[in-house]
Amino acid sequence: MARLESVRVPSGVSLTNPASGVPAMTVTSRHSALIRVTHWITALCFLALLVSGIEILISHPRFYWGETGNVLTTPLFSLPIPSSRRLVPTGYGYVLPDQNGWSRYLHFQAAWIAVLTGLLYTISILFTGHLRKNLLPGQGDLSWRTLSTTIARHLRFARPSEAEAWSYNVLQRLTYLFVIFVLFPLVIWTGLAMSPAFVSAVPATVTLLGGQQSARTIHFFVSLFLLLFLLVHVVMVCLAGFRSRMRAMITGRAGPHMERT
Amino acid sequence: MTDLSRRKLIVSGLAATASVAGLGVAARIAQKYGLVPPDHAGLYGPGETLTYATQRLLTRHSLAREFPRTKISQRPLANEMPPLNDAFKRLQAGGFADWRLSVDGMVDRPASFSLAQLKSYPSRSQITMVQCEEGWSYIAEWIGAPLSHVLDAVGVRPQARYVVYFSIDPDWWDSIDMADALHPQTFLTYGMNGNELPVGNGGPLRIRLPRQLGYKNVKFLTHLTVTDTLKGFGKGSASASPEGGSYAWYAGI
Questions:
Q1: What is the pLDDT of residues A172-231, one digit of tens each?
Q2: Residue A105: which of B79, B248, B252 has the nearest Cβ?
C-alpha cells in the first residue's frame, strides 16, 4: 500500500489507488506525529501536575489576596477539605500524611517537561501552518450566524459533520486558542510568581499580579479552568466517537468511514 | 513498524547519539560551574537540576524583594516545630548568654562566636517575606549579621563550595552553595521587628535566606562547616530534610 502519511485530505475528497481505482482508506493522517507525541506528553504531564498540585494544596487549603497570608490572617476563602498540617484549622478531626516532598519534585519536573513540550509545539504550529489552517478561525467563522449555528449544534449533541472530522469547528478553535495562548501562559506565569528566587530576578512577575498570595490564588483558579477544559475535552471525544478519535490521536490514522465505527 | 524506512532509522540513530553526547558535555560544563544540585540523581534529578541550574544562572546576584515597614505582618506566624531539647532549655534558662556558634571546615581561623560577638558586627536589617512550601507566608523585619561578614572573619579558603549549617536539634541541618552563603541578604539573624528574635521564629539565632523557602531557614543555629563537597554529610542528600521527608535541597521555588 502506498504510504501517504503526511497527506492532508480535505473533507469530501477520497483518495483512490491509481492502479485499482479502489478507494484507499486509512492512508491519511488526521494528526501529524509531532502533534500526537506532544499531545500525549502534555496529557501525562497534566495528570502529574494535577495529582502533585492537589497534594501540595492540601498542606494549606486556604487562599488569600495580596502579598501574605497564613493561619493567623483571614483567608479570601478556604476549601472544605482536610489538611496535611495540624496548624491549619479545617474542622476535621484528623490530619493527612505529608506528601509534599515527592509532590514538589514531581510538580516541577512535570512542569519542565510540559513547558519544553509546549515550546516545541508552539514553534512547530507556527511553521507547519497548523495554527493558521486548523486553529485560527477561518474567514467568516466569527460571524454571529456561524457561532450560533455551531453552539446550537453542540447543545443538540449533533454528530460532528464530515468537515469537523478533518479539522476543528469555530468553538473548538477558540477553546484551543484560549487554552494554548491564555491558560497555559497564565499558569506558568503565576507558578513562577510564587518562586522567591525567580521573582528576585524578575520582580514584575509577582508585583503585576498584586502579590505572592494573589499569584497562588490565580494559579489555583487557572488550574481549575484547565481541569474543566480536560473534562469537557474527554466528554467531547467520547461523544464524537471515542475509538476513532483515540485512534486518530494515537496512530494518526483516521478516515471519514471511521465515523460509522 | 514496517514503514520505518532505513533513512528514518539512520537519522533517528544519529540524533539519539548526538543528544546523548550533547547531554554528557552539558553535564560536565554544569558540574564545573556549580549548576548541579546534590540531589541530582534519581527519578526527579533531571527536573531538579534544570530548576537549580536555571535559577542559579538567573539569580546569582539578584536581591530578594524588600518591603516598606507598612507591609510588616502584624503577627509573624511561629510555625509548629518539634519540642526543644534539654540543651536548648539549659541555654534558654541562662538567657542565651552561653549560646555559641562554632565555624570550622575549610577556613583559615576556625572560631566560636557568642551572640554578643555576632551583635558586635555591623548590624543589618531587611524587611523580607518568609514563604513556606506549604503556601503560607508573612513579612517581618529581620536583624542580624550578614553571613559573609562572619565567613570573612574566619577566612574561607578559595576551594570552598558549600556551607553546611546545624541547629541545636541534631536532626535539623541543611546546606547552601557559596552563591547563597555570600549573598548580601543571607543573615545570621538575632532580631525581629526591632526586638530579640522570638524562640518561635528561630531565636536566638536563625539563618535567613530570603530567596529560598522557609524550610532552608534553619532555626537555633549552633554550628557552621565550610566544605568543598557534601559527600559524607548525612546520607548524601546534603540536608536533614530529604532523610525525613524527601524535600528538595534547592528551595528557590
A1: 888 999 999 999 999 999 999 999 999 999 999 999 999 999 999 999 999 999 999 999
A2: B248
pLDDT at B4: 58
Average pLDDT over residues A49-64: 97
pTM of the model: 0.87
Q: How many domains does chain A have?
A: 1
Contact A168, A176 (CB under 8 A): yes
Whether residues B81 and B160 fall in one domain:
yes
- Residue A222 three-state SS: helix
Full residue range of the structural domain in which residue A145 is found = 136-261
The dihedral built from the CA positions of residue A204, A205, A208 and A211, taken in this order, carries a sign that is negative
Contacts of B252 in chain A (CB under 8 A): 195-198
Inside any domain, residue A94? no
> Which residue in B48, B134, B137 is closest to A59 by CB distance?
B134
Read off the pLDDT of residues B75-98 as tens digits, 9 standing for 90 and up: 899 888 888 999 999 999 999 999
Taking an 8 Å cut-off on Cβ atoms, the answer to whether B252 and A195 are in contact is yes
Q: Looking at beta carbons, which residues of chain B come within 8 Å of A213?
A: 137
Radius of gyration for the alpha carbons in chain A, expressed in angstroms and rounded: 23
- Count A/B contacts: CB-CB distance under 8 Å: 129
* Chain A residues whose beta carbon lies within 8 Å of the beta carbon of residue B131: 194, 196, 212
